[in-house]
Amino acid sequence: MIGILLLIYKKRLLVLLVAFLISFMSFGQNYYSGRVLKSNKEPIANAHIQVSNTNIGTITNSDGFFSFYIGNDVATVTVSISHIGYLPRKVTLSGQQEIIILEEDTQQLAEVVIIPKDYARELVEKAIERIPANCPTVPELHKGFFREQTHWEGEKHPYPIYIAEAVLETLKSSYSNRKTKGQVRLVEGRKYESGQLDSLETRIYAGSHIAHNFDFVARREGFLKDPDGYYYEIVDTTRLNQKDVFKISFNRKDNPHGHVYIMDSSFAIVKAEFRYTRFPPWSLPDRGRRFSYSTVSYYQGEDKRWRIKHIDYQTAFDWKGKILSLHGKYATTNIEEEAEEIPYPERIQYHDFLLYKTGQYDSNFWKHYNIIIPNNKVDSLFQSAGEQVSEKQETGKKMIKVRKRMALLSRFQLSYEVAYYNLALRDHTIDYANPAIEISRRGEARPGSSMGLSTGIHFMLTPSYKIGVKSIYSFSENKVRGYDLELSKVYNINPRGQPILLSPAVQVGHQALGYFLGNFRSENTFTINSKEFDSGDTDVFLWVRGIRIQPTISLGIEKSKRLQLFITAGYNFMLRDNKGLFFEEQGQFFLRQRSAFLDNLNEGLRITTGREVLENEIVLSFGACIKF
User: How many whole angstroms from its chain centre is CA 105?
Assistant: First the structure.
């Protein structure tokens, strides 16, 4: 009996093992590689490689090499290779590295004999009109590979300061309407850091959003947004996929200039080259920038829709007497149609530093992902990264200090709020006279209000607690001014999605309330509290000032890692107040504008009331919080 049970057990174990092996093999991958050359055996860089009947693809590197992984359930692997100016080819790959020769497409435009002078502009206008027909109109999830590296220019053998590589997933929305932003998720990443990184006290952000930032068709940027602001000229004709393509130059005086390639038959935009050499002086991201060059290529899928395929981006900045150069390269490697939104906690934000998101070197890092094959220099740097650990421990001390400073800075926040204050004026009498102003007022209780701007700076003590200081200055007829110390706690009530923040707080500080009594004009000079008023134009307020405490509750939503929007409600308790009149000169330069507060029962002033003469209880505000 025991023997029979053991036999059954062994058979079941064998069945499970076979099932596991079959499952493992079905999810396995095969590796393919090749090299694309011209007929003279020179490499063709940035050729588009697309696996037939799939959404898998890549591009060739600067030496013409490409590689990709594909599931072993694909029996025959056929790729389409295309590049502007060359005849396309379809090649069935084996497991060995293939050498693929592309022949130049020398066929000329057969039917166009005379090109009208304004045909270039007409082509651009038709290309803009045809974007929804030529590009996807449903959301798609693009998986792509991105490499970013920096170096100091002017050296004989420029040595990278750092290299960051990443597999990114980018949610691409419909091209039917203009889209300037998008969602990005980091799948995997690695980095190489040299000792030179210690001397680089700045960081470059937004690299991970390259598939959005440089998709000028989706963003409708440049001449696609303002076609009337550019001059156009057809400068050449070429071929892509055996169809005629016009190369059109575009330029305007202030920037940018470059070329766009438009297919004659469908008016699809297949490539663009942008050159920026001048930048607005008020733009902080462009401070010290010398140039910005980018090349953006699109490819046509089997559904005849054109999608972004390849981006090559270069820029340089003046930095402490040296030139810092940045080079970014991106290729779309896979596409999932009808994609859903990327969950908010998984998104990499626009201002995140990719260098801080990636991991360290791993020799088996990319074996499951399709990438742009690095050149020998980049590959050797990553291979030697493991040998440089001890060197980094010595040279990275300054970098640790830089990162600590940046981490400390990131805990500061700025807040800006537009606030509404209700005011309650009680029954009162005011008697006051001086050589220029005479006030005799018998006032009844009435409601009032004030609008103002509240600004603050806050510091996150912990991820949940923050402390800050806030100031209030109203811009309406009635006045509210104040300075407060605020302590608050932050609760994320939507931890699995876009953060919704509930924040109870308490503010303690000094507040002044002013009810406008009128404007007084006089040719006589007068003095209040030893301050001489001589402009002849003075506003006078019934004024209450003192210490207050104000509990508040805020509800906000995090629009990005750097921006939060919120609404706040508060109830004000005046702990100690002092009433009087406030005088403020008008018609003077603000540095010469005098103001003075006169306490009740001083210099002949008499204010009588049954209770607090002026109160503020409810505060409502809407604002934004910006992180450094």
Answer: 41
**Contact by Cβ (8 Å): 227, 128:** yes
Using alpha carbons only, what angle is made at residue 618 by residues 613 and 619, rounded to the nearest 5 degrees? Answer: 115
| pLDDT-based confidence at residue 286 (cuts at 50, 70, 90) | confident
Residue pair 105/84 in contact by the 8 Å Cβ criterion: no
The strand pair at 57-59 and 65-71 is best described as: unpaired
- Residue 622 corresponds to which amino acid? F
Phi, psi of 395 (to 5 degrees): -85, -10
Report how far residue 145's alpha carbon sits from residue 208's, in angstroms, rounded to the nearest whole number: 10
Taking the C-alpha atoms of residue 439 and residue 425, their distance in angstroms, rounded to an integer, is 17
CB 488 within 8 A of CB 505: yes
Contacts of 94 (CB under 8 A, 6+ apart): none
User: Average pLDDT, whole number, for the chain?
Assistant: 85
If you search the block for the tokens 């007929």, which residue do you land on? 39
pLDDT confidence of residue 509:
95
Identity (one letter) of the amino acid at 519?
N
Q: What is the pLDDT of residues 41-80, one digit of tens each?
A: 999 999 999 998 888 999 999 899 999 888 877 778 899 9
Q: How does pLDDT run across 359-417, given as a tens digit for each residue?
A: 665 666 667 788 888 876 666 666 665 444 434 444 455 656 666 777 788 889 999 99
How many Cβ atoms are within 10 Å of 525's Cβ, its own excluded? 12
Asked if 51 and 67 count as a contact pair (C-beta separation under 8 A), the reply is no
CATH numbers and ranges of domains, the chain? 2-101 (2.60.40.1120), 119-408 (no CATH), 410-627 (2.40.160.20)
Q: What is the Cβ-side half-sphere exposure of residue 408, based on CA atoms within 13 angstroms?
A: 6
pTM summary value: 0.75
198 pLDDT above the threshold of 80: no
pLDDT for the residue numbered 461: 93
Q: CA 182 → CA 48, 350, 367, 594, distances in Å?
A: 24, 9, 28, 52
For residue 30, what pLDDT band results from cuts at 50, 70 and 90? confident
Whole-angstrom distance, CA of residue 127 vs CA of residue 311? 20
- 120-159 as b/e: b if 16+ CB within 10 A: bbebbeebbebbeebbbeebbbbbbbbbbbbbbeeeeeee
Where helices occur in 163-227 by DSSP H, the ranges are: 210-213, 216-219
Distance of alpha carbon 305 from its chain centroid, rounded?
Answer: 27
Q: Can you give the pLDDT at residue 11?
A: 43
Evaluate whether 454 touches 484 at the Cβ level (below 8 Å): no
Which of helix, strand or coil describes residue 492? strand
The stretch 514-536 carries a mean pLDDT of 88
From first CA to last CA, the distance across the chain in angstroms is: 74
Cβ within 8 Å of residue 615, ≥6 positions away: 423, 424, 426, 513, 544, 574
